[in-house]
Amino acid sequence: MAAILHALQQELNNLPSQERRIAEVIMESPSDIPGWTISHLAQQSGTSAATVTRFCKSFHFKGFPDFKMKLAAELSHSSDETAYQDIVAGNPLSKIVAAIEANHLASIADTTRLLDLGRLEHAVQLLCKAPRIDLYGVATSSIVTQDFYQKLVRIGKSCTAFSDSHMQITSASSLAEGMWRWPYLIQEKRRRLLMHCIVPNRLELQRFH
After folding, report:
1. pTM of whole model > 0.90?
2. Per residue in 77-103, is it b (16+ CB within 10 Å) or e — as a string?
3. CB-based burial of residue 110 (10 Å sphere; 0-12 exposed, 13-18 middle, 19+ buried)?
4. Rounded to whole angstroms, what are the CA distances from 200 to 130, 168, 177, 203?
5. Tens-digit pLDDT profile for residues 97-143
6. Which pLDDT tens digit goes with each residue over 168-179?
7. CA-based Rg of the chain, rounded to a whole angstrom?
8. How far apart are CA 123 and CA 114, in angstroms?
9. Which pairing describes strands 202-208 and 193-199: parallel, antiparallel, or unpaired?
10. Which one-letter DSSP state was computed for residue 12?
11. Are 21 and 8 in contact (CB under 8 A)?
């Protein structure tokens, strides 16, 4: 499955109703989408051109033309070798191991294709410059936060990881200019988390994806 289609499938139940209809139409006929206009997709999904544009931007595309171009490129390069495979109970151990390997390779390939290198570079620069980094994660995300914390400590960065929401707020309120809070979210039940982060002299409501 192409990385874009996989991302749509993963986010489907968390999208607003109108954007969910757009995603469903795209997943039903992915190979047709590159030939469609934005108006046609809006008509087929019962939405509007503005909603289609908003949908594309929510997945970090510049707009529908950019979405079509990248989807077409992925579909042309997709192959069974990097397709996700089911791990079926009762299969021989060799098939289970092969399926696990294929799924890891597909996941890496999908992530690489979806990377915005400009944003990645900017994030790396911020982390390098920050004198202190506080990591926030809850539930399953806290495990990933601890892994990131361990990696940052190994390269000599001053950082702390918090899984308790009260300690996260306390930490955010103590951060000075140039210090960074990094909420690490794994998709669980909601696509977005709105979190109050208190910084010196102001209260910000930030949206983290």
Report:
1. no
2. ebeeebeeeeeeeeeeeeeeeebeebb
3. buried
4. 16, 15, 8, 8
5. 988 888 888 778 777 777 778 888 988 888 888 888 888 888 888 89
6. 888 888 777 655
7. 20
8. 16
9. antiparallel
10. G
11. no
